[in-house]
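hey so u asked for the seq, here:
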Amino acid sequence: MNNEDKNLPLFEHLEELRTALIRISAYVAIASVIVWLFYQDFFSLLANPLIKGMASTGAKFLVTGIAEGFTLKLQICVIFAVILAFPLIIGEVWLFIAPALKQNEKKAIILVVPISVFLFITGVLSAYFTLPIGIEWLIKQNPQEANFMPSLSETLLFAVKMEFAFGFLFQMPIFIVFLAKIGLVKAYMLKKFWREAVIVICIIVAIITPTTDAFTMIIMSVPMLSLYLITIQVVSIMEKRV
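ran it, C-alpha cells below
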C-alpha cells in the first residue's frame, strides 16, 4: 500500500468537513437574510428587557457613531442567525461525527444533546426575564446629577453576554454527570458537600448577575440549586445501574 492510499481516508474526512462547513455557512447566511428582513422584530425581542429596566428612569439609548447602528444590525443578524440555524448546525455536526461513533456512544449523544439544549435555553430565558430587574437596579446606582444615556450597542451586547453566560452555566448538570461517569464524582460526595455547593453557586451567580440585590440573586440561584439536587438523583440512579 503506497502513501497515497494511506492518506485517502484523511482527505475524504477533510472533504466531508469542508462540505459540512460550507452547508453550515449557507444555513447561517440564509438565516441572516431572514433576520435582516425582520430586523425590527428581532431587535425589539432583544432590547425588550433593557427597555423595561430603563422605563422607570426615563433613560434612552445613545448612538454616537455614524456606523454604530449598521454595525449593531450586522451583529444582531449574526447572533440570531446562529440561533435560528442551530438545529441544522447540530444536524451537520451529527452527520460528520456519527460514522466514527460506536452504538452506545450514539445513544449517549442522542440523549445528552436534547437535554443540553434544553438546559441552555432555560438558562438564557432565566437571564432574559430577570434582566429588567438587574438593569433597573444598576441604573438607580448612578448619581442623580448624572444624565444617563447608555450606548445602544454596548448595552445590547452586554445583555447577550449575560444570557449566554447563564445558558452555559446551566450546563452544570451535564458536566457533573460526565465527572460521575468517569469516576471522579460520586453521589455521596455531592450530598456530603451540598452546603459548599450552595456557597459556590451563590458566588458564581453573584459574579455573573449584573446586580447584587438579594431578590435577583435568589431568582437566579434557585434554578441552579434545583438542578444540583436533580443531578444528585441522576448520579445516584447511574451508580445503581452499574
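The chain has nine helices and no strands. Confidence is low (pLDDT under 50) at residues 1-8.
lmk if thats what u needed
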